[in-house]
Amino acid sequence: MNKPVDPAATVTRAEVEDLLYHEAELLDSWRLDDWLGLLTEDAAYYVPPNDKPDGDHRFTLFTIADDIVRLRERIIRLKDPNCHAEFPPSRTRRLITNVRITGIEGDTISVAANFDIFRYRRNEPPREFVGRYRYKLQRRNGALKIAERRVILDAEELGVLGSVSFLL
Amino acid sequence: MNDRTNGKNGQANGHLVLEDRKAQTFSVNREVFVSPTVFEDESRAIFDKCWIYVGHASEIRNPGDFRTRNVAGRPIIFCRDRQCTPRALINSCRHRGAIVCREREGNARQFYCMYHGWTYHTDGKLKAIPGDDAYGEKFDKSTLGLVEVPRFEHYRDFYFLNFDRDAPDLATYLAGAKEYIDLVVDQSPSGRMEIISGVQEYDIKANWKLLVENSVDDYHLVTTHSTWLNYMRNSGVNISVPKGQLLPTKGIGKDLGNGHLTTDNPNYRGRPVAKWISIYGEDAKADIDAIRKELVERLGETRAARVADTNRNLVVFPNLVINDGSSVTVRNFYPLGPDHMRVTAWALGPVEETEAQRARRLHAFLTFYGPGGFATPDDVTALELAQQGFAAWREVQWSDLSRGMGKSANEPQLHTDEGHLRVFWRRWSELMEQHP
To answer: What are phi and psi of B303, to 5 degrees?
Structure first.
């Protein structure tokens, strides 16, 4: 008999950390198609505005609010040499810490983490994006996948950070 | 005088903007983008003389509501006092200067200075001074309220201030820009638009005037924004360009008087009010039709088409941009130095919008606009690359804005020409030359 799987019994922080660190490596090395492979078929990516970090993208103007359709288009754009803001691609390095499983509801695992992303481009000062990740993870064929990633920046305004033209 | 290649006589007798009708050229000296002197002069000649956007009535809906913001370099409290009158108060204690309202936004019963405890009513009047028995008999508290800006007026809920007491009234100043603000406001059945929560504040390491140009420059669209056009095409939007055109539709660039200008283009990129495109999804079709029907019933067929079928990027001189394109964005920007500006951008929508309509408007906004959009980051890059090029302003002195100059007066200047950009530069030059 098929017993319903209890996600709590099957997920560990180590497994979540492996996913997040792997994702960080893919993003920092611009392996964007491989990164898409980490997402569920209906994944979403949100960057709330700095003044409303807890806002809802349906009522609040976000910096980024991509459903999977637009997320795929964003990857097409980022790989195009005519994505001028990211040509040549920025050098980025993300440090991820304070990874915690914060909740499990049905088949969805909520994860929190902190990040510090350094970004370097020629002729530009280094920029440092600091904040917190909020993930919703789900299993597909046994593997942990990202159903939602919310990137909440700590800065009061984007200001000198300028555009958010690469994937945070 | 107009030798654009002469390095030595580059200023051409002191003129920074050169219009040579005979040669059909228009040139801007790149010194205007790098010079600390020009930057200083602009703050007196432009920002202290013109009507400058402060905020929208919807941001201070209730008595006591306030927003603190920087307006032309000054700390301003944009608020609705407890008697319901909108105000623009200078956010500086009359005693020793400290900011008396520190939060970004909120609702206040009074403004309180944390330094020595002076408090002010929301209309600016001084309320109380701790230990006021230490002052002489003639010390007049009634004259020590927060200072109101010299002039403060609105047009259809868009509030502006002017630091020049003798400036013409706002409606006169806005001239032809009023018609284009009306086209935005007419999208609301009740004529009430609102600023949607969530602000985009980001810097561009470039001179602020480059963003004026860029906001209305349709010549750059195909090259700078090819990835956005690909996204449109991939989503099923028709972006084919007819022979002889640079863009899918042929629009115009227009002089609105007093340095204001706009593009006015037949729409192809979809409009929340009210032109469906495939990105909105099939289930949005009926809703867009209903919005359109309401427009026609209220405004008539001709006016409805004017509102719903054109995209307009409007510059209210010197630094307010209202882009009514993929969605409506209101943005202004100030120089923080010759090569540095701070942009503040909001989304604007009709107050009557349903949840689905609002979500669609915001989704449409992010297809193009903003620091995470599919287009704006490339604009930022274009402006920053230009600024980097200006480092050689002594060797390469002039920027060219001559597109469309070969046309006769009765031939329209296209949105891909630079006739409307020249409108800005003529007014800029006029004000700078009037400045003592």
So the answer is: -65, -40
The domain tally of chain A equals 1
Cβ separation of A76 and B382 shorter than 8 Å?
no
List, by residue range, all CATH 2.102.10.10 domains of chain B.
Answer: 58-149
Q: How confident is the model at residue B8 (pLDDT cuts 50, 70, 90)?
A: very low
Q: Is some CB atom of chain B closer than 8 A to the CB atom of A155?
A: no
Q: Hey, is the C-beta of A56 within 8 angstroms of any chain B C-beta? A: no
Chain B partners within 8 Å of A77 (Cβ): 227-228, 230-231, 374
Assigned CATH for B176-424: 3.90.380.10
Residue A168 lies in a domain: no
Q: DSSP per residue over chain A, as a string? A: --PPP-HHHH--HHHHHHHHHHHHHHHHTT-HHHHHTTEEEEEEEEE--TT-TT--TTTS--SEEE-HHHHHHHHHHHHSTT-GGGSSPPEEEEEEEEEEEEEEETTEEEEEEEEEEEEE-TTS--EEEEEEEEEEEEEETTEEEEEEEEEEE-SSS-BTT----S--
pTM of the entire predicted model: 0.95
pLDDT at B272: 96
* pLDDT bucket at B361, cuts 50 / 70 / 90: very high
ipTM: 0.95
Q: Which CATH fold topology does B58-149 show?
A: Rieske Iron-sulfur Protein (2.102.10)
8 Å CB contact between A44 and A67:
yes
DSSP B417: S
Mutate to test the interface with B, among A150, A163, A166, A167 (most CBs of B within 10 A): A163
Establish if A31 touches chain B: CB-CB under 8 angstroms: no
CB within 8 Å of A22: residues ≥ 6 apart: A38
- When pLDDT is cut at 50, 70 and 90, the band that residue A114 belongs to is very high
CATH number for A132: 3.10.450.50
Residues constituting chain B? 436
Which residues constitute the domain of residue A77? 7-161
Q: Which of B148-162, B175-189, B240-254, B329-343 has the lowest mean pLDDT?
A: B240-254
Per-residue model confidence as pLDDT tens digits over A18-45: 999 999 999 999 999 999 999 999 999 9
Which site among B279, B378, B383 would you substitute to test the A interface, given the most A Cβ atoms closer than 10 Å to its Cβ? Answer: B378
The pLDDT mean for chain B works out to: 95
Is A166 within the bounds of a domain?
no
Cα of B359 to nearest chain A Cα, Å:
4
Task: Note the pLDDT tens digit of each residue in B198-226.
Answer: 999 999 999 999 999 999 999 999 999 99
**Cβ–Cβ contact A164 with B under 8 A:** yes
